[in-house]
Specification:
Elements (H helix, E strand, L loop, with lengths): L6 H8 L30 E7 L4 H6 L7 H8 L1 E7 L7 H8 L5 H4 L5 E3 L9 E3 L26 H8 L5 E5 L2 H8 L5 E6 L2 E3 L8 H14 L19 E3 L2 E3 L11 H5 L2 H17 L9 E7 L1 H9 L4 H23 L4 E6 L8 H6 L6 E2 L6 H11 L8 E3 L4 E5 L5 H17 L3 E6 H5 L13 H7 L9 E5 L3 E2 L18 H4 E8 L5 E2 L4 E2 L3 H8 L27
Parallel strand pairs: 1-10, 1-11, 2-19, 2-20, 5-6, 5-10, 12-17
Antiparallel strand pairs: 2-18, 3-4, 6-7, 8-9, 11-18, 13-14, 14-16, 15-16
Helix pairs in contact: 1-8, 1-10, 3-12, 4-7, 8-10, 10-12, 11-12, 14-15
Length: 560
């Protein structure tokens, strides 16, 4: 087996005077007598971690095996195992936009990873959530990264208004995670590319990032023959066929220089955590009078889930390594003597590939009908209304927002809408279709997120200037990736069902008393909860979330 030195250790040894970390760390020693409250003083550093596609199901499946950072959070902190990305559009960009804004996509404006602006002054009408489409010569695949589309401030932005000395740092494996959690006023925002960590156009690369990228290049140049298979993963080790692709038995073998293999493996998260730890030390975050904040987007779990699914050896190894690397990261902060608070959650959940479900007692699981893909749907409807060969409908996939072409006359549009609604509502894989008017007429949801109706979930994702003319929601147990002879991604998310909506929400600070609250809460509750800990006022009418009391027993952290 490959004798790995974790990216954290490589980076630590390369960046003097950073203290080296072991790749493996022992489980934290439980406190012998837990106090009944948390410190009244504000923490000096907020560490906000998003684990991309870390569903509540995946979190609970391996919970008994945690021995590192996830064990610390679940055995010593405040645990909300039934958190909700409560909106219907359970994608990466909308989910990340809720975590540190306290607002649902209906307020953040981030309705999807991609939407359509048919008035855009370029040929490509698809808009990527983290781009500036006004930049000359760009399209949604070749774009200039930007926080332009985020309509509300992040926690870091609010902290900087209250105290300009606050430092706001955001690092991630994905640009949309770093941008949506860091916000437009972040001091530093970096995300991984094949060339290392990059930022907005024109941002100078500081010496720390240059050194990080040097270490990344060295690490990438080395092969990874294998990761060991933990004992809890042995039962997962059998092959599943999806189209031409076999998954379920992988060990993340990687050839030297294979960036894609690095990105879709535990190596990516180890590198991002190492970068975050080095940034904290280099910038002395949490060591000055004010409270600082760093957001960390760990993206590998999502890449693994899409590429291999969530139930094979690949995902099992990924969660095990995530637990270990988080433990090493927290140990490093402890050694630096920083008074920090952690929140860990996810941008969305995920669903396993139908082929494995079919083998494991769920024969009704299926892939979406290719007739529902935008190209096929457009052809069908155009033929039905006598406009064969014309573009009448725009969409990004077989579910989500669909838009009627702006070139249609009022009469043509009415015919297209009627035909589309009739066709989709009759399709056996479609749960429902809402019109823009129906969603707009629905009040913003309130109450327990687990009790919301589908149209309330849709309303939480609805932002009129960007949302489509129709919203299509597939039935449960229909994977929105159609069968193909050459499968790329084998599994995905994005549905309004609990597999994709439910995520863990975990808080930890030294001195907290552990408790667990199994009832539903929302990721938009994170901002007001953290704001209360640092005594930062936030007007209730500016956000959708509520403060969660982190004191077990008497006392109320929301009242501090």
């Amino acid at each position: 087996m490959f004798k790995r030195v974790a990216a954290a250790l490589l980076l630590a040894t390369a960046l003097a005077p950073v203290t080296p970390l072991m790749a493996q760390s022992p489980a934290p020693t439980p406190a012998t007598a837990a106090p009944t409250t948390i410190p009244a003083s504000a923490p000096k550093l907020i560490v906000a971690i998003s684990v991309d596609q870390f569903s509540a199901d995946l979190f609970s499946e391996y919970r008994q095996y945690y021995s590192g950072g996830l064990k610390r959070l679940t055995s010593e902190g405040a645990v909300f195992p039934r958190g909700y990305q409560s909106h219907a559009a359970t994608e990466t960009c909308p989910g990340h936009s809720t975590i540190l804004t306290g607002s649902r996509p209906s307020r953040t404006g981030i309705i999807a990873n991609n939407w359509f602006d048919l008035n855009a002054k370029r040929d490509d009408k698809s808009i990527y959530c983290a781009e500036d489409e006004t930049q000359p010569g760009t399209d949604s695949d070749h774009y200039e990264a930007s926080p332009l589309h985020l309509k509300v401030p992040t926690l870091g932005g609010r902290m900087k208004i209250a105290n300009p000395a606050t430092r706001v740092v955001s690092v991630s494996g994905k640009d949309r995670a770093a941008i949506m959690m860091g916000g437009p006023t972040a001091d530093q925002a970096w995300w991984l590319s094949s060339k290392g960590y990059v930022s907005y156009k024109g941002v100078a690369v500081p010496p720390l990032v240059a050194k990080v990228n040097e270490v990344f290049a060295q690490r990438l140049a080395q092969p990874n023959p294998s990761f060991e298979l933990p004992a809890q993963c042995v039962s997962k080790d059998f092959a599943v066929q999806a189209g031409n692709k076999t998954v379920g038995t992988g060990r993340f073998v990687r050839q030297a220089g294979d960036y894609n293999g690095f990105r879709i493996s535990p190596e990516q998260d180890a590198m991002t955590l190492a970068f975050a730890a080095a940034a904290i030390e280099s910038m002395q975050l949490g060591k000055q009078a004010q409270t600082d904040i760093i957001s960390i987007g760990l993206s590998a779990t999502d890449y693994v889930g899409h590429t291999y699914g969530t139930e094979g050896t690949e995902s099992c190894i990924q969660v095990d390594r995530l637990d270990t690397e988080l433990g090493a990261f927290f140990d490093r902060l402890d050694k630096d003597g920083i008074d920090y608070v952690v929140v860990l959650t996810a941008d969305h959940g995920g669903h396993y590939l139908p082929e494995r479900h079919n083998l494991n007692a769920m024969p009704m699981e299926q892939r979406v009908d290719k007739a529902l893909t935008p190209k096929a749907l457009n052809a069908t409807i155009a033929e039905q209304v006598g406009m064969a060969g014309k573009k009448v409908i725009w969409g990004d996939g077989p579910a989500g927002d669909f838009y009627f072409d702006k070139g249609l006359t009022a009469a043509e549009r009415a015919k297209v809408e009627a035909a589309t609604l009739a066709y989709l509502r009759a399709h056996p894989q479609v749960q429902t279709v809402f019109t823009k008017a129906e969603i707009a007429a629905t009040p913003s949801p309130s109450g327990p997120p687990e009790s919301w109706s589908l149209i309330q979930e849709a309303r939480a994702s609805f932002y009129a200037p960007r949302s489509g003319d129709l919203l299509v929601l597939l039935k449960p147990r229909v994977m929105s990736i159609p069968e193909s002879a050459t499968m790329g991604a084998v599994a995905t998310h994005g549905s309004p069902w609990d597999t994709d909506r439910r995520v863990p929400i975990l808080f930890w600070r030294k001195g907290m008393q552990h408790f667990e609250q199994p009832l539903g809460v929302e990721t938009v509750d994170i901002l007001p909860t953290l704001a209360a800990l640092i005594h930062l006022p936030v007007a209730k009418d500016e956000i959708d979330g509520r403060c969660l009391d982190l004191v077990a027993g008497a006392g109320d952290s929301c009242a501090q």
